[in-house]
Protein backbone atom coordinates (compact mmCIF):
# COMPACT_ATOMS: atom_id res chain seq x y z
CA UNK A 1 0.00 0.00 0.00
CA UNK A 2 1.27 3.41 -0.92
CA UNK A 3 1.65 5.79 2.03
CA UNK A 4 -0.52 8.90 1.59
CA UNK A 5 2.10 11.19 3.11
CA UNK A 6 4.44 11.51 0.13
CA UNK A 7 7.02 14.34 0.23
CA UNK A 8 4.88 16.48 -2.09
CA UNK A 9 1.75 15.84 0.03
CA UNK A 10 3.72 16.74 3.13
CA UNK A 11 4.71 20.08 1.63
CA UNK A 12 1.07 20.87 0.78
CA UNK A 13 -0.06 19.89 4.26
CA UNK A 14 2.65 22.03 5.85
CA UNK A 15 1.53 25.01 3.73
CA UNK A 16 -2.11 24.59 4.79
CA UNK A 17 -1.14 24.34 8.48
CA UNK A 18 1.10 27.41 8.20
CA UNK A 19 -1.62 29.40 6.42
CA UNK A 20 -4.18 28.48 9.09
CA UNK A 21 -1.80 29.41 11.91
CA UNK A 22 -0.91 32.72 10.24
CA UNK A 23 -4.59 33.56 9.67
CA UNK A 24 -5.52 32.90 13.28
CA UNK A 25 -2.57 34.91 14.58
CA UNK A 26 -3.25 37.81 12.22
CA UNK A 27 -6.96 37.79 13.14
CA UNK A 28 -5.89 39.04 16.57
CA UNK A 29 -4.51 42.15 14.81
CA UNK A 30 -7.89 42.95 13.25
CA UNK A 31 -8.67 46.58 14.09
CA UNK A 32 -12.29 45.59 14.79
CA UNK A 33 -11.30 43.51 17.81
CA UNK A 34 -12.37 45.41 20.98
CA UNK A 35 -8.84 45.28 22.37
CA UNK A 36 -6.86 45.69 19.16
CA UNK A 37 -4.21 48.40 19.28
CA UNK A 38 -4.65 48.77 15.50
CA UNK A 39 -8.23 50.08 15.80
CA UNK A 40 -7.07 53.63 16.45
CA UNK A 41 -9.69 55.53 18.45
CA UNK A 42 -7.76 58.81 18.51
CA UNK A 43 -4.56 60.68 17.61
CA UNK A 44 -2.41 59.32 20.46
CA UNK A 45 -3.22 55.71 19.54
CA UNK A 46 -2.63 56.55 15.86
CA UNK A 47 0.80 58.12 16.50
CA UNK A 48 1.82 55.16 18.64
CA UNK A 49 0.52 52.78 15.96
CA UNK A 50 2.49 54.62 13.25
CA UNK A 51 5.62 54.32 15.38
CA UNK A 52 5.01 50.59 15.75
CA UNK A 53 4.57 50.17 11.98
CA UNK A 54 7.79 52.15 11.30
CA UNK A 55 9.76 49.98 13.72
CA UNK A 56 8.13 46.85 12.31
CA UNK A 57 9.25 47.62 8.71
CA UNK A 58 12.75 48.60 9.85
CA UNK A 59 12.92 45.25 11.64
CA UNK A 60 11.69 43.48 8.48
CA UNK A 61 14.45 45.18 6.45
CA UNK A 62 17.11 44.22 9.03
CA UNK A 63 15.79 40.65 9.03
CA UNK A 64 15.98 40.39 5.24
CA UNK A 65 19.51 41.85 5.08
CA UNK A 66 20.90 39.71 7.93
CA UNK A 67 19.17 36.47 6.91
CA UNK A 68 20.10 37.14 3.26
CA UNK A 69 23.77 37.57 4.21
CA UNK A 70 23.68 34.36 6.28
CA UNK A 71 22.07 32.36 3.48
CA UNK A 72 24.41 33.83 0.87
CA UNK A 73 27.48 33.05 3.02
CA UNK A 74 26.24 29.54 3.80
CA UNK A 75 25.81 28.72 0.11
CA UNK A 76 28.70 30.66 -1.35
CA UNK A 77 31.27 29.44 1.22
CA UNK A 78 29.89 25.98 1.92
CA UNK A 79 32.35 23.13 2.35
CA UNK A 80 33.40 21.77 -1.05
CA UNK A 81 36.55 19.79 -0.27
CA UNK A 82 38.80 19.01 2.67
CA UNK A 83 41.11 21.98 2.20
CA UNK A 84 41.10 24.52 5.03
CA UNK A 85 39.77 27.82 3.62
CA UNK A 86 41.82 30.97 3.63
CA UNK A 87 41.92 32.37 7.18
CA UNK A 88 40.91 36.05 7.43
CA UNK A 89 41.39 38.24 10.50
CA UNK A 90 39.61 41.57 10.40
CA UNK A 91 38.35 43.71 7.56
CA UNK A 92 38.32 47.42 8.40
CA UNK A 93 35.84 48.39 5.70
CA UNK A 94 33.38 45.68 6.70
CA UNK A 95 33.69 46.46 10.39
CA UNK A 96 33.08 50.16 9.88
CA UNK A 97 30.05 49.33 7.73
CA UNK A 98 28.46 47.04 10.28
CA UNK A 99 29.07 49.56 13.05
CA UNK A 100 27.75 52.59 11.17
CA UNK A 101 24.70 50.97 9.55
CA UNK A 102 23.14 49.68 12.82
CA UNK A 103 23.83 53.07 14.44
CA UNK A 104 21.77 54.74 11.70
CA UNK A 105 19.02 52.14 12.12
CA UNK A 106 18.96 52.65 15.89
CA UNK A 107 18.86 56.43 15.47
CA UNK A 108 15.98 56.08 13.00
CA UNK A 109 14.08 54.18 15.69
CA UNK A 110 15.24 56.23 18.68
CA UNK A 111 14.37 59.71 17.42
CA UNK A 112 10.63 59.15 16.80
CA UNK A 113 10.39 56.94 19.90
CA UNK A 114 11.85 59.62 22.18
CA UNK A 115 9.67 62.31 20.59
CA UNK A 116 6.64 60.06 21.23
CA UNK A 117 7.61 59.52 24.87
CA UNK A 118 8.08 63.26 25.41
CA UNK A 119 4.75 64.09 23.78
CA UNK A 120 3.02 61.63 26.10
CA UNK A 121 4.91 62.70 29.22
CA UNK A 122 4.38 66.44 28.97
CA UNK A 123 0.65 65.91 29.47
CA UNK A 124 -2.39 66.74 27.39
CA UNK A 125 -1.74 69.65 25.01
CA UNK A 126 -3.98 72.64 25.72
CA UNK A 127 -4.12 73.61 22.04
CA UNK A 128 -6.10 70.48 21.11
CA UNK A 129 -9.15 71.40 23.18
CA UNK A 130 -10.32 72.04 26.71
CA UNK A 131 -8.41 69.43 28.78
CA UNK A 132 -10.47 67.16 31.03
CA UNK A 133 -8.65 66.18 34.21
CA UNK A 134 -9.30 62.70 35.60
CA UNK A 135 -7.57 60.92 38.48
CA UNK A 136 -7.48 57.15 38.07
CA UNK A 137 -6.63 55.22 41.21
CA UNK A 138 -5.81 51.54 41.28
CA UNK A 139 -7.18 49.34 44.04
CA UNK A 140 -7.36 45.61 44.70
CA UNK A 141 -9.37 44.85 42.52
CA UNK A 142 -11.02 47.82 40.90
CA UNK A 143 -10.40 51.26 39.45
CA UNK A 144 -11.56 54.54 40.97
CA UNK A 145 -12.11 57.58 38.74
CA UNK A 146 -12.21 61.09 40.21
CA UNK A 147 -13.07 64.28 38.32
CA UNK A 148 -11.65 67.06 40.54
CA UNK A 149 -13.09 69.93 38.46
CA UNK A 150 -16.54 68.39 38.04
CA UNK A 151 -16.48 67.01 41.61
CA UNK A 152 -17.64 63.58 40.48
CA UNK A 153 -16.42 60.18 41.69
CA UNK A 154 -17.13 56.86 40.02
CA UNK A 155 -15.64 53.40 39.58
CA UNK A 156 -14.62 51.07 36.76
CA UNK A 157 -16.31 53.11 34.03
CA UNK A 158 -14.63 56.33 33.01
CA UNK A 159 -16.81 58.81 31.13
CA UNK A 160 -15.18 61.30 28.77
CA UNK A 161 -16.22 63.72 26.02
CA UNK A 162 -15.04 63.07 22.44
CA UNK A 163 -12.61 65.47 20.79
CA UNK A 164 -11.14 66.81 24.04
CA UNK A 165 -7.78 65.75 25.49
CA UNK A 166 -8.16 63.73 28.68
CA UNK A 167 -5.33 63.98 31.20
CA UNK A 168 -5.32 60.89 33.38
CA UNK A 169 -3.29 61.12 36.59
CA UNK A 170 -2.45 57.54 37.47
CA UNK A 171 -2.09 56.59 41.10
CA UNK A 172 -2.60 53.48 43.15
CA UNK A 173 -3.33 52.46 46.68
CA UNK A 174 -2.28 48.89 47.38
CA UNK A 175 -1.30 47.33 44.06
CA UNK A 176 0.55 48.00 40.80
CA UNK A 177 -1.82 47.89 37.84
CA UNK A 178 -1.08 48.99 34.31
CA UNK A 179 -3.71 51.29 32.86
CA UNK A 180 -4.38 50.33 29.26
CA UNK A 181 -7.11 51.29 26.82
CA UNK A 182 -5.69 49.68 23.65
CA UNK A 183 -7.69 51.77 21.18
CA UNK A 184 -6.85 55.08 22.86
CA UNK A 185 -3.25 54.94 24.13
CA UNK A 186 -0.40 52.72 25.27
CA UNK A 187 -0.18 51.35 28.78
CA UNK A 188 1.33 53.08 31.80
CA UNK A 189 1.72 51.67 35.31
CA UNK A 190 -0.30 52.85 38.29
CA UNK A 191 2.19 52.76 41.14
CA UNK A 192 1.56 53.57 44.83
CA UNK A 193 3.31 56.77 45.99
CA UNK A 194 4.46 57.61 42.47
CA UNK A 195 1.99 59.40 40.20
CA UNK A 196 2.21 58.74 36.48
CA UNK A 197 0.50 60.53 33.66
CA UNK A 198 -1.26 59.43 30.50
CA UNK A 199 -3.35 61.40 28.04
CA UNK A 200 -5.48 60.58 25.04
CA UNK A 201 -8.29 61.82 22.87
CA UNK A 202 -11.24 59.71 21.72
CA UNK A 203 -12.56 60.74 18.34
CA UNK A 204 -15.81 58.80 18.19
CA UNK A 205 -18.46 58.25 20.88
CA UNK A 206 -18.55 54.67 22.08
CA UNK A 207 -17.42 52.19 24.70
CA UNK A 208 -13.68 51.46 24.72
CA UNK A 209 -12.36 48.38 26.49
CA UNK A 210 -9.66 48.83 29.10
CA UNK A 211 -7.55 46.14 30.70
CA UNK A 212 -4.86 45.92 33.35
CA UNK A 213 -1.63 45.01 31.58
CA UNK A 214 0.63 44.30 34.55
CA UNK A 215 0.57 41.03 36.45
CA UNK A 216 -0.79 42.37 39.72
CA UNK A 217 -2.04 39.35 41.61
CA UNK A 218 -4.86 36.90 41.84
CA UNK A 219 -7.50 39.03 40.06
CA UNK A 220 -5.19 40.28 37.30
CA UNK A 221 -7.08 38.59 34.49
CA UNK A 222 -10.32 40.11 35.80
CA UNK A 223 -9.07 43.69 36.02
CA UNK A 224 -11.06 45.21 33.21
CA UNK A 225 -12.67 48.62 32.88
CA UNK A 226 -14.39 50.73 30.26
CA UNK A 227 -13.96 54.21 28.85
CA UNK A 228 -17.30 55.58 27.72
CA UNK A 229 -16.90 58.45 25.25
CA UNK A 230 -19.87 60.79 24.83
CA UNK A 231 -20.56 63.77 22.65
CA UNK A 232 -19.79 66.99 24.56
CA UNK A 233 -23.48 67.41 25.30
CA UNK A 234 -23.84 63.81 26.46
CA UNK A 235 -20.83 64.21 28.74
CA UNK A 236 -22.25 67.36 30.33
CA UNK A 237 -25.50 65.47 30.85
CA UNK A 238 -23.63 62.64 32.52
CA UNK A 239 -21.84 65.10 34.84
CA UNK A 240 -25.12 66.84 35.65
CA UNK A 241 -26.73 63.44 36.28
CA UNK A 242 -23.97 62.49 38.69
CA UNK A 243 -24.83 65.63 40.70
CA UNK A 244 -28.57 64.95 40.64
CA UNK A 245 -30.38 62.91 43.32
CA UNK A 246 -31.85 59.56 42.22
CA UNK A 247 -35.54 59.10 41.72
CA UNK A 248 -37.12 58.70 45.16
CA UNK A 249 -38.30 55.18 46.06
CA UNK A 250 -41.80 54.55 47.34
CA UNK A 251 -41.99 53.78 51.01
CA UNK A 252 -42.16 49.99 51.54
CA UNK A 253 -41.02 49.19 47.99
CA UNK A 254 -38.31 46.53 47.51
CA UNK A 255 -35.91 49.32 46.47
CA UNK A 256 -36.59 51.27 49.64
CA UNK A 257 -36.08 48.16 51.78
CA UNK A 258 -32.90 47.49 49.87
CA UNK A 259 -31.77 51.04 50.62
CA UNK A 260 -32.12 50.36 54.36
CA UNK A 261 -30.25 47.05 54.08
CA UNK A 262 -27.52 48.74 52.04
CA UNK A 263 -27.16 51.45 54.66
CA UNK A 264 -26.82 48.81 57.38
CA UNK A 265 -24.45 46.36 55.70
CA UNK A 266 -22.64 48.04 52.81
CA UNK A 267 -22.43 51.77 53.27
CA UNK A 268 -19.44 51.81 55.62
CA UNK A 269 -17.31 51.01 52.58
CA UNK A 270 -19.50 51.90 49.57
CA UNK A 271 -20.72 55.49 49.26
CA UNK A 272 -23.99 55.66 47.32
CA UNK A 273 -24.88 59.36 47.44
CA UNK A 274 -22.02 61.40 46.00
CA UNK A 275 -24.57 63.49 44.10
CA UNK A 276 -24.95 65.61 47.24
CA UNK A 277 -23.48 69.08 47.69
CA UNK A 278 -19.89 68.86 48.94
CA UNK A 279 -20.00 65.08 48.55
CA UNK A 280 -16.79 65.05 46.54
CA UNK A 281 -14.43 66.25 49.26
CA UNK A 282 -16.32 64.12 51.77
CA UNK A 283 -15.83 60.99 49.64
CA UNK A 284 -12.11 61.65 49.33
CA UNK A 285 -11.85 62.04 53.10
CA UNK A 286 -13.85 58.85 53.57
CA UNK A 287 -11.74 56.85 51.11
CA UNK A 288 -8.62 58.08 52.90
CA UNK A 289 -9.99 57.07 56.25
CA UNK A 290 -11.15 53.64 54.94
CA UNK A 291 -7.66 53.11 53.57
CA UNK A 292 -6.02 54.16 56.85
CA UNK A 293 -8.35 51.93 58.87
CA UNK A 294 -7.60 48.94 56.65
CA UNK A 295 -3.87 49.60 56.68
CA UNK A 296 -3.89 49.82 60.45
CA UNK A 297 -5.04 46.20 60.81
CA UNK A 298 -5.11 44.48 57.45
CA UNK A 299 -6.05 41.06 58.82
CA UNK A 300 -9.02 42.09 60.94
CA UNK A 301 -10.24 45.33 59.43
CA UNK A 302 -13.98 45.45 58.81
CA UNK A 303 -13.47 48.45 56.54
CA UNK A 304 -11.71 48.73 53.19
CA UNK A 305 -11.73 51.26 50.31
CA UNK A 306 -14.52 50.23 47.96
CA UNK A 307 -16.09 51.40 44.69
CA UNK A 308 -18.39 54.39 44.84
CA UNK A 309 -21.94 53.26 43.97
CA UNK A 310 -23.50 56.62 43.08
CA UNK A 311 -25.99 56.00 40.23
CA UNK A 312 -24.87 52.39 40.02
CA UNK A 313 -27.97 51.60 37.93
CA UNK A 314 -26.28 53.35 34.99
CA UNK A 315 -23.25 51.05 35.00
CA UNK A 316 -22.82 48.70 32.07
CA UNK A 317 -20.75 46.10 33.94
CA UNK A 318 -20.06 44.81 37.43
CA UNK A 319 -16.96 43.41 39.15
CA UNK A 320 -14.54 45.80 37.37
CA UNK A 321 -15.91 45.12 33.93
CA UNK A 322 -16.14 41.34 33.89
CA UNK A 323 -19.92 40.70 33.87
CA UNK A 324 -22.84 42.52 32.38
CA UNK A 325 -24.63 44.57 35.05
CA UNK A 326 -27.85 42.53 34.98
CA UNK A 327 -30.14 41.82 37.93
CA UNK A 328 -29.26 38.13 37.78
CA UNK A 329 -25.50 38.76 37.82
CA UNK A 330 -25.79 41.37 40.55
CA UNK A 331 -27.72 38.98 42.82
CA UNK A 332 -25.05 36.30 42.25
CA UNK A 333 -22.36 38.87 42.96
CA UNK A 334 -23.90 40.06 46.22
CA UNK A 335 -24.36 36.47 47.38
CA UNK A 336 -20.81 35.36 46.69
CA UNK A 337 -18.51 37.91 45.01
CA UNK A 338 -15.53 35.55 45.09
CA UNK A 339 -17.41 33.08 42.94
CA UNK A 340 -17.44 35.64 40.11
CA UNK A 341 -14.13 37.30 40.84
CA UNK A 342 -11.57 35.65 43.03
CA UNK A 343 -9.78 37.92 45.48
CA UNK A 344 -12.42 40.59 46.12
CA UNK A 345 -12.13 42.25 49.51
CA UNK A 346 -15.84 42.05 50.33
CA UNK A 347 -15.82 38.61 51.92
CA UNK A 348 -12.45 39.18 53.56
CA UNK A 349 -13.66 42.27 55.41
CA UNK A 350 -17.41 42.91 55.50
CA UNK A 351 -19.11 41.65 58.66
CA UNK A 352 -22.18 40.49 56.73
CA UNK A 353 -20.03 37.81 55.05
CA UNK A 354 -17.88 36.99 58.06
CA UNK A 355 -20.93 35.92 60.04
CA UNK A 356 -21.26 32.74 57.99
CA UNK A 357 -18.85 29.82 57.80
CA UNK A 358 -19.10 29.51 54.03
CA UNK A 359 -18.38 33.25 53.56
CA UNK A 360 -21.63 33.83 51.67
CA UNK A 361 -23.81 36.76 52.59
CA UNK A 362 -25.73 36.43 55.85
CA UNK A 363 -29.03 37.71 54.41
CA UNK A 364 -32.14 36.03 53.00
CA UNK A 365 -32.48 35.73 49.25
CA UNK A 366 -35.34 38.25 49.39
CA UNK A 367 -33.06 40.74 51.15
CA UNK A 368 -30.34 40.22 48.55
CA UNK A 369 -32.88 40.84 45.77
CA UNK A 370 -33.98 44.03 47.51
CA UNK A 371 -30.40 45.30 47.65
CA UNK A 372 -29.96 44.46 43.94
CA UNK A 373 -33.19 46.29 43.09
CA UNK A 374 -32.09 49.28 45.11
CA UNK A 375 -28.71 49.48 43.39
CA UNK A 376 -30.18 49.05 39.91
CA UNK A 377 -32.73 51.75 40.78
CA UNK A 378 -29.95 54.26 41.43
CA UNK A 379 -30.16 56.44 38.32
CA UNK A 380 -30.22 60.23 38.13
CA UNK A 381 -33.62 61.82 38.62
CA UNK A 382 -34.75 64.67 36.41
CA UNK A 383 -32.09 67.39 36.34
CA UNK A 384 -34.81 69.99 35.82
CA UNK A 385 -36.17 69.06 39.21
CA UNK A 386 -32.85 69.46 40.98
CA UNK A 387 -34.30 71.39 43.86
CA UNK A 388 -33.28 75.02 44.19
CA UNK A 389 -32.51 75.62 47.87
CA UNK A 390 -35.03 77.61 49.87
CA UNK A 391 -33.37 80.81 51.01
CA UNK A 392 -35.44 83.48 52.75
CA UNK A 393 -34.81 86.71 54.66
CA UNK A 394 -32.08 89.28 54.12
CA UNK A 395 -31.49 91.55 51.15
CA UNK A 396 -31.43 90.23 47.56
CA UNK A 397 -27.62 90.54 47.64
CA UNK A 398 -27.41 88.43 50.83
CA UNK A 399 -29.79 85.78 49.48
CA UNK A 400 -27.85 85.77 46.21
CA UNK A 401 -24.59 85.23 48.08
CA UNK A 402 -26.01 82.24 49.96
CA UNK A 403 -27.41 80.83 46.73
CA UNK A 404 -24.07 81.35 44.97
CA UNK A 405 -22.42 79.02 47.47
CA UNK A 406 -25.24 76.52 47.99
CA UNK A 407 -25.72 75.68 44.30
CA UNK A 408 -21.96 75.53 43.86
CA UNK A 409 -21.23 78.55 41.59
CA UNK A 410 -18.12 79.14 43.71
CA UNK A 411 -16.75 75.73 42.71
CA UNK A 412 -16.00 77.09 39.22
CA UNK A 413 -16.06 80.90 39.43
CA UNK A 414 -13.41 82.49 41.64
CA UNK A 415 -13.92 85.69 43.57
CA UNK A 416 -10.36 86.76 42.92
CA UNK A 417 -9.67 88.62 39.67
CA UNK A 418 -6.36 86.80 39.18
CA UNK A 419 -7.58 83.25 39.72
CA UNK A 420 -9.39 81.06 37.22
CA UNK A 421 -10.95 77.84 38.46
CA UNK A 422 -13.10 76.39 35.66
CA UNK A 423 -15.15 79.35 34.48
CA UNK A 424 -14.11 83.01 34.36
CA UNK A 425 -13.61 84.96 37.60
CA UNK A 426 -16.70 87.04 38.31
CA UNK A 427 -14.91 90.08 39.72
CA UNK A 428 -16.06 93.12 37.75
CA UNK A 429 -18.49 91.03 35.68
CA UNK A 430 -21.21 93.68 35.84
CA UNK A 431 -18.93 96.22 34.14
CA UNK A 432 -17.72 93.77 31.54
CA UNK A 433 -21.10 92.21 30.80
CA UNK A 434 -22.60 95.52 29.71
CA UNK A 435 -19.96 95.92 26.98
CA UNK A 436 -20.08 92.44 25.47
CA UNK A 437 -23.38 92.45 23.62
CA UNK A 438 -26.18 94.85 22.92
CA UNK A 439 -27.89 93.52 26.06
CA UNK A 440 -27.76 95.34 29.37
CA UNK A 441 -25.40 93.82 31.95
CA UNK A 442 -28.37 92.49 33.89
CA UNK A 443 -29.96 90.80 30.87
CA UNK A 444 -26.61 89.37 29.84
CA UNK A 445 -26.19 87.79 33.28
CA UNK A 446 -29.81 86.59 33.34
CA UNK A 447 -29.45 84.88 30.00
CA UNK A 448 -26.10 83.34 31.00
CA UNK A 449 -27.63 81.84 34.14
CA UNK A 450 -30.74 80.51 32.40
CA UNK A 451 -28.84 79.23 29.38
CA UNK A 452 -25.13 78.70 30.09
CA UNK A 453 -24.45 78.14 26.38
CA UNK A 454 -25.79 81.59 25.43
CA UNK A 455 -22.46 83.44 25.63
CA UNK A 456 -19.14 81.67 25.99
CA UNK A 457 -16.15 83.83 26.87
CA UNK A 458 -13.10 83.18 24.67
CA UNK A 459 -10.83 80.54 26.14
CA UNK A 460 -13.62 78.81 28.08
CA UNK A 461 -16.06 76.03 27.22
CA UNK A 462 -19.59 75.46 28.31
CA UNK A 463 -19.45 73.07 31.23
CA UNK A 464 -21.79 74.93 33.56
CA UNK A 465 -24.55 73.05 35.36
CA UNK A 466 -27.28 75.06 37.07
CA UNK A 467 -30.52 73.85 38.59
CA UNK A 468 -33.66 75.44 37.21
CA UNK A 469 -34.05 78.49 39.41
CA UNK A 470 -37.22 80.52 39.90
CA UNK A 471 -36.95 84.02 38.39
CA UNK A 472 -36.77 85.62 41.85
CA UNK A 473 -33.68 83.58 42.72
CA UNK A 474 -32.04 84.46 39.42
CA UNK A 475 -32.64 88.13 40.36
CA UNK A 476 -31.03 87.54 43.78
CA UNK A 477 -28.00 85.94 42.12
CA UNK A 478 -27.63 88.86 39.70
CA UNK A 479 -27.93 91.33 42.58
CA UNK A 480 -25.12 89.57 44.41
CA UNK A 481 -22.88 89.05 41.36
CA UNK A 482 -23.26 92.75 40.49
CA UNK A 483 -21.62 93.65 43.83
CA UNK A 484 -18.41 91.75 42.92
CA UNK A 485 -16.00 94.54 42.04
CU1 LIG B 1 -3.85 44.95 37.71
CU2 LIG B 1 -3.09 43.17 36.45
The CATH superfamily name of the domain at 254-376 is Cupredoxins -  blue copper proteins
Bound molecules: dinuclear copper ion
User: How far apart are the first and last residues' alpha carbons, in Å?
Assistant: 105 Å
Percentage of residues assigned to helices: 40-55%
Main pleated sheet? 5 strands, mixed
Q: What is the count of β-strands? A: 12
Mean pLDDT: 88
Q: Nearest-angstrom radius of gyration? A: 30 Å
Taking strands numbered 1, 2, ... along the chain, how are they ordered across the largest sheet? Answer: 3-2-1-5-8
Using the alpha-carbon principal axes, give the shape.
Answer: globular
- The CATH architecture of the domain at 254-376 is Sandwich
**Low confidence ranges:** none
| Number of contiguous helices | 15
- CATH top level of the domain at 254-376 is Mainly Beta
Question: Can you lay out the helices and strands and say which pair or pack?
Answer:
Blueprint: H1 7-27, H2 43-76, H3 92-121, E1 132-139, E2 142-147, E3 152-155, E4 157-161, E5 166-172, E6 177-181, E7 185-190, E8 196-200, E9 206-211, E10 224-230, H4 232-242, H5 254-265, H6 279-296, E11 317-318, E12 323-324, H7 327-335, H8 337-340, H9 346-349, H10 351-354, H11 365-376, H12 396-406, H13 429-436, H14 441-450, H15 471-482
Parallel strand pairs: 1-5, 4-10
Antiparallel strand pairs: 1-2, 2-3, 5-8, 6-7, 9-10, 11-12
Helix pairs in contact: 2-3, 5-11, 7-11, 12-15, 13-14, 14-15
The protein binds dinuclear copper ion.
Amino acid sequence: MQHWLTPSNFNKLALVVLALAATSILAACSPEHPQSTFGYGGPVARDQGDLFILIFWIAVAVFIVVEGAIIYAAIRYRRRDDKIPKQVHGNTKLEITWTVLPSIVIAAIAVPTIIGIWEQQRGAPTDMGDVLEVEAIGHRWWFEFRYPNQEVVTANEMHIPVGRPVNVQLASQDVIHSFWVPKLAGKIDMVPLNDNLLWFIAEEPGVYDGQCAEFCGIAHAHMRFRVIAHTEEGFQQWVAGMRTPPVAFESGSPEQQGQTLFATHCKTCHTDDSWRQDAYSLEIQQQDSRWATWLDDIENSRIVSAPNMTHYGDRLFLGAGIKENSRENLIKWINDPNDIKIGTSMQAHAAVYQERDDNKINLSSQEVENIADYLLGLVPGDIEQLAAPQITGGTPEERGEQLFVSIGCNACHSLDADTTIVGPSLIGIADRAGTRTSLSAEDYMRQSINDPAAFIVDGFTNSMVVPKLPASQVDDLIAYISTLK
